[in-house]
Amino acid sequence: MSNIFTSVFVDVIALSGSALAQTNREKEFVIWLAQRDQNIVGIGTVGFSLDELPWDPDDFSSNQQFLLRVVDGALARLGWSKLSYEPNLDYIKSTLERFGRMVSAFRPEDVDATHYEDWSLVEEGDDWPTIPPGYPQCGKHGIYLTCHGCVICNSK
Q: Using only C-alpha atoms, what is the Rg of the chain?
């Protein structure tokens, strides 16, 4: 994906996921994905593998179904009205569908739980933990905030 396309993908996934997340782990999936914020992390540096997501090996099926609902929500333009631009559905549709197929093909034996353990570790004195306490959301966009803030606010 191009850099702009990656940003659009993260925006629409974060909007959909934030609207749909109910459990703490679902919120953590959204936060993890929203942390792929090129405006903060750096253009062209936010790729990821599915095994890096915060999968719970004991609740894999629920995690997988949540991600598939997030993709469906993004395809249905869930939350897009909060964007300052209109994503081109023709371009983003194939990427979202491909991501959905990858999530569907992902298997429990592919999960590496150490990724979640490392990512969620709160270090002593860390003023900006990876998972913000209480799962706060952006007042303007409703997106779960990351340690970098709101992925959409950061793009302005």
A: 15
Domain boundaries, the chain: 3-155
Q: Are 140 and 150 in contact (CB under 8 A)?
A: yes
For the chain, give the longest Cα–Cα distance.
46
CB 68 within 8 A of CB 104: yes
Mean pLDDT by 10 residues, the chain (156 residues): 72 97 96 79 63 90 97 97 91 93 96 86 74 93 92 86
This prediction's pTM: 0.90
**Three-state secondary-structure class, residue 149:** strand
Q: Which two tokens stand for residue 149?
A: 């803030």
* Total Cβ atoms within 10 A of residue 73: 20
From CA 71, how far away is CA 100, in angstroms rounded? 6
